[in-house]
Amino acid sequence: QVQPVESGGGSVQAGDSLRLSCSISGRTSANYHMAWFRQGPGKEREFVAAISWVGIMEAYADAVKGRFTISGGNAKNSVILRMNNLKPEDSAVYYCAASLRYSTSPEEYEYWGQGTQVTVSS
């Protein structure tokens, strides 16, 4: 079993940058793929970015492509999400998740962190 723990959220102005970190503890010897999801008020949880367990493959939601970068991976026991040029619509609780399948679907992810709040003011 893997336990992701997020950190690095906060309140910023539009155009600012934030760096979210996800540390991974537990049975990290398995080949878990990692991803970030987010959930805004009154919205469903949505995919943000994913990275394969050794960091070779990456995927991004269209809404964040070119602004967000995911790095690390389970093989490195941490996953980083660098968020640049933040917009008010990026405001949400951001979750780190782990799965044995490389996927952009939240249903495929078995293990979830508690989430970290990101608030972007205009």
Return the string of H and E elements: EEEEEEEEEEE
Question: What is the average per-residue confidence, as pLDDT, rounded to a whole number?
Answer: 93
Largest beta-sheet characterization? 7 strands, mixed
The count of DSSP E runs of length 2 or more, i.e. the number of strands, is 11
| DSSP summary: helix tally | 0
Rg (CA only): 13 Å
Query: Fraction of residues in helices?
Result: under 10%
Task: Give the amount of beta strand, in percent.
Answer: over 45%
Short description:
The chain contains no helices and 11 strands. It has strands at 2-7, 10-13, 18-26, 33-39, 46-51, 58-60, 68-73, 78-83, 92-99, 111-112, 116-121.
How does this structure look, described?
- The chain has 122 residues and is mainly beta.
- It is 0% helix and 52% strand.
- It has no helices and eleven strands.
- It has strands at residues 2-7, 10-13, 18-26, 33-39, 46-51, 58-60, 68-73, 78-83, 92-99, 111-112, 116-121.
- Strands 2, 4, 5, 6, 9, 10 and 11 form a seven-stranded mixed sheet that branches. Strands 1-3-8-7 form a four-stranded antiparallel sheet, with no helix packed on it.
- A hairpin with a 4-residue loop joins strand 7 (68-73) and strand 8.
- The chain is globular, with a radius of gyration of 13 Å.
- The N and C termini lie far apart (40 Å).
- The model has no long low-confidence stretch (mean pLDDT 93).
